[in-house]
């Protein structure tokens, strides 16, 4: 049985973490690699996300779970209410404007700056093969690992009863890997491409917030499954967790520019604090025209 300590001795190669037989991200140009990419692209094109079952090996999942549980006391728990943009209320807007739609989030984050160098999460996120695979799947090959020191590759943690409301992410693309499944609930729901880099599409956002299911997709992830989704453009949420088990998810993130980070307000709300980097880069121009 590998432990966090022995993992660093062994050196955690990507092949210890990813099922490279089934998912040849190290051979993207091969026939199998092209086939895998075509599947991923089909999912992203048709329903705005792709799911790769059993992408991460059980031993690596066990190490991720051990890492979360060993650092459990350091998780930042939020019980705040937020709107889909993690921005402050704007009383001058109509009461039914999406920016005035606040829901209570009860969930925790094991922030990226706590992830061990020996963690499979680090190996996966540092992997150039992984970045290339994600970019090729999205047909956006100029993507970067996120510069945000807290949000780049955190674990999300939800206890029974916790709920993560509708929101857009501060980064363009997120990969999620379910590390521990809830007994029930904890289902990922998303509305693909609800907004665009140059348009907030508030009326469509308002419809989903008002309960319309027309554009909403559900994804029932199993432990070890990997999904790729466009979190900055597809509004998403996680339904309430029930039963007795926590839900753990690994969240490696990617962006379309190498420098921007979460704004200070969002970083405080999600990760509990803003660092010097968040303050230094607050005025940095974003490459999209979105408000958050
Ligand atoms: O837990 C999930 O599946 C998604 C989490 C999420 O949307 C986020 O951390 O921004
Ligand atoms: Fe998100």
TrEMBL record:
This is Fe2OG dioxygenase domain-containing protein. The lineage of its organism: Bacteria, Pseudomonadati, Pseudomonadota, Gammaproteobacteria, Oceanospirillales. Belongs to the iron/ascorbate-dependent oxidoreductase family. Residues 145-258 form the Fe2OG dioxygenase domain. Keywords: Iron, Metal-binding, Oxidoreductase. It comes from the Bacteria. It holds the Pfam family HalD. PROSITE patterns: FE2OG_OXY.
């Amino acid at each position: 049985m590998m432990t966090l300590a022995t993992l660093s001795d062994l050196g955690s190669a990507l092949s210890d973490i990813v099922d490279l037989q089934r998912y040849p991200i190290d051979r993207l140009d091969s026939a199998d690699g092209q086939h895998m990419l075509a599947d991923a692209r089909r999912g992203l094109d048709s329903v705005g996300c792709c799911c790769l079952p059993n992408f991460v090996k059980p031993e690596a999942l066990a190490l991720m779970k051990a890492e979360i549980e060993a650092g459990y006391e350091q998780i930042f728990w939020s019980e705040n209410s937020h709107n889909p943009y993690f921005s402050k209320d704007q009383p001058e807007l109509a009461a039914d404007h999406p920016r005035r739609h606040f829901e209570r989030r009860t969930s925790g984050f094991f922030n990226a700056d706590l992830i061990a160098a020996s963690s499979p999460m680090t190996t996966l996120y540092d992997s150039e093969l992984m970045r290339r695979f994600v970019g090729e799947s999205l047909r956006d090959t100029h993507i970067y690992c996120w510069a945000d020191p807290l949000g780049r590759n955190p674990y999300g943690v939800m206890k029974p009863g916790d709920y993560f409301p509708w929101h857009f992410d501060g980064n363009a693309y997120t990969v999620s890997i379910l590390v521990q499944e809830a007994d029930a609930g904890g289902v990922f729901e998303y509305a693909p491409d609800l907004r665009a880099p140059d348009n907030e599409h508030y009326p469509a956002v308002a419809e989903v917030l008002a309960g319309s299911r027309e554009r909403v997709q559900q994804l029932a992830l199993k432990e070890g499954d990997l999904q790729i989704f466009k979190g900055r453009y597809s509004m998403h949420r996680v339904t309430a967790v029930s039963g007795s088990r926590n839900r753990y998810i690994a969240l490696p993130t990617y962006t379309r520019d190498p420098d921007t980070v979460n704004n200070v307000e969002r970083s405080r709300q999600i990760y509990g604090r803003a660092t010097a980097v968040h303050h230094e880069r607050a005025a940095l121009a974003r490459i999209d025209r979105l408000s958050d």
